[in-house]
Amino acid sequence: VAYLDQHGFTFSLNLDWPAQQIAVYPQYIKRLMDNIISNITKYAEPSVPVRIAVEAVGESVQLSFANAIRPDSSQEDSNRIGLSNMRAMMGRMEGELQVSSEDGDFAVILCFPGRL
Q1: Does residue 66 contact residue 109 with C-beta atoms inside 8 Å?
Q2: What are the phi and psi torsion angles at 34 (to 5°)?
Q3: Which end of the chain is more exposed for a tag (fewer CB within 10 A), N or C?
Q4: What are the Cα distances from residue 67, in Å, to 98, 99, 107?
């Protein structure tokens, strides 16, 4: 958030962490966050708050990032390898990556299985 703030982005945050715990590989989390932040700086509209949320959904914990797509951004230069790598890392952590793009909005959701 601090990095994006320095680049002119604002935020809508809902970070009430649920009671569930998750197990992650720290090196994967760093790479996932680097990819998400890179994509936000390349493609997001800075005048619209980036929405970041953590929530329990069933037995999983979801960390979501959503933003408006900058009208002048072109994703043609994207080869989507980043999303493939993110899916693979989430799979190795027994999680799932969900991506949606509709009506000028882009969202990435990292779904982690909850642990007791």
Answers
A1: no
A2: -60, -45
A3: C
A4: 14, 12, 7
List per-block mean pLDDT (blocks of 10 residues) for the chain, which spans 116 residues.
91 90 94 94 94 93 95 65 92 96 94 85
94 phi/psi in degrees, rounded to 5:
65, 25
Q: Which two tokens stand for residue 37?
A: 């932040």
Residue 78: the pLDDT is 60
3-state secondary structure the chain: CHHHHHCCCCEEEECCCCCCECCCCHHHHHHHHHHHHHHHHHHECCCCCEEEEEEEECCEEEEEEEEEECCCCCHHHCCCHHHHHHHHHHHHCCCEEEEEEECCEEEEEEEEECEC
Q: Are 52 and 12 in contact, with CB atoms under 8 Å apart?
A: yes
* ∠ CA 13-28-39, rounded to 5°: 55
pLDDT at 115: 77
105 neighbors 12 (Cβ within 8 angstroms): no
Residue 46 is predicted with a pLDDT of: 94
